[in-house]
Amino acid sequence: MSSTQSSSSGTQPLLALIYDKTFRSILYQVLVFGGVFLLGWYLVNNTLTNLEQQDIATGFGFLEREASFGISESVIEYSPADTYGRALVVGILNTVKVSALGIFLATILGTLIGIGLVSPNWLLRFMGKTYIETFRNVPLLLQLFFWYSVVTNAFPGPRQALNPMAGVFASNRGLYLPVPADHPAWTAALIALILGLIGAFLVRKWALKRLEATGEVFPYLSAGIGVAIGLPILAWLVFGAPTEMNTPSLQGFNFQGGISLSPEFFTLLLGLTIYTATYIAEIVRSGIQSVPKGQSEAATSLGLKPSWVMRLIILPQALRVIIPPMTNQYLNLTKNSSLAVAIGYPDLVSISNTTMNQTGQAVEAVTIFMTIYLSISLLISFFMNWYNKRMALVER
Asked: Which is a Gene Ontology cellular component entry for this protein (predicted)?
């Protein structure tokens, strides 16, 4: 009898531990994590074994080998004699370039259309709805094919290139624009522009605090524009005020000099901007409509201009609703840029595919561009989450 009692008393703590919710939740998580780890280990080990049996080399040593293929456009200098690693860096920068510009332009276009959707003007509402229903319901890949065919067929060859103004040429090879010739003054002006934008931001922040404290309005917009423009002009004058331009000119079968926008880059940027702006417009519309009408009515009764009401009253409150879904669209635009391979723009996926075909390092190449896209997406999410926290209401 005593032995039975002792054994039952010994199992009671174990049963109590098993029936404890906290312990079971931790146990289940450990088991799931262990199962996922074992599955991953099995897949990796099986892949390496199969590659070894087929005498396929593994590892990332191929990144130091000569690439031996050209890239049509790059942000940094590149030649076929460079390594695969540098070629992949070119692809990363090309992806970041088109994604950043696409996010910027799609945000502006989508915001303007979203504001137009809630405008009392029926024509603006009609045009906005027509735009959204047209471009949102056509797959992005088909839009890229359409715009690419338009861009490449609507313009003549380089020898018959359109010349709408001095130094500007448009052909089926791209758009060529003049740029300032190399001079220290332009570097100084660029640094001054960055400082001017920072100064404009600080002026705006000070003006809003002053408005909140005293009720006095300071024209921070015009003052900020003056600072952002005035500093670069001053730096340009101090460093000699150069006026020499690097103008494109026809040499052989194409233009040389200046700066060019390739049909592939322009098509991809246009498609991403137009397509993503449709979703951003609906997000902005819903954000604006989430603000109680009493806010705008109260602001109007105080005599504020409609533009001030939208900029100072409605949009700041709507941002709390707009930012989270806007983050998803930024991520979608960045990932949709991988469709560039369909029209020949040398983005990360396109260059990775070429690398994979030449080296046979399929697993490594796919791992690289998956990791890069994951890193870019996480950076965008981190920044937008930080900005969302700043815009959130602070509870007392």
From this structure: ATP-binding cassette (ABC) transporter complex
Radius of gyration (C-alpha) of the chain in whole angstroms: 29
Q: Do 161 and 175 meet the contact criterion of CB atoms below 8 Å apart?
A: no
pLDDT score, position 73: 85
- Kindly list the domain boundaries of the chain, sorted by start residue: 2-53, 84-181+244-391
Give the pLDDT of residue 5: 52
Q: The domain 84-181+244-391: what is its CATH number?
A: 1.10.3720.10
What is the distance between the alpha carbons of residues 251 and 224, in angstroms, rounded to a whole number? 43
Distances, alpha carbon 220 to alpha carbons 99, 157, 379, in Å = 30, 47, 31
The helix (H) or strand (E) run that includes residue 254 is strand 254-256
Residue with tokens 């040593």: 61
The residue type at 370: M
pTM value is: 0.79
Q: Is the pLDDT higher at 97 or at 51?
A: 97
CA distance 351 to 359: 12
Which residues lie across from 179 on neighbouring strands? 246
Cβ-contact 288, 317 below 8 angstroms: no
Alpha-carbon distance of 111 to 133, in angstroms, equals 16
Query: How far, in Å, CA of 274 to CA of 268, rounded?
Result: 10
Partners of 175 in the β-ladder: 170, 261
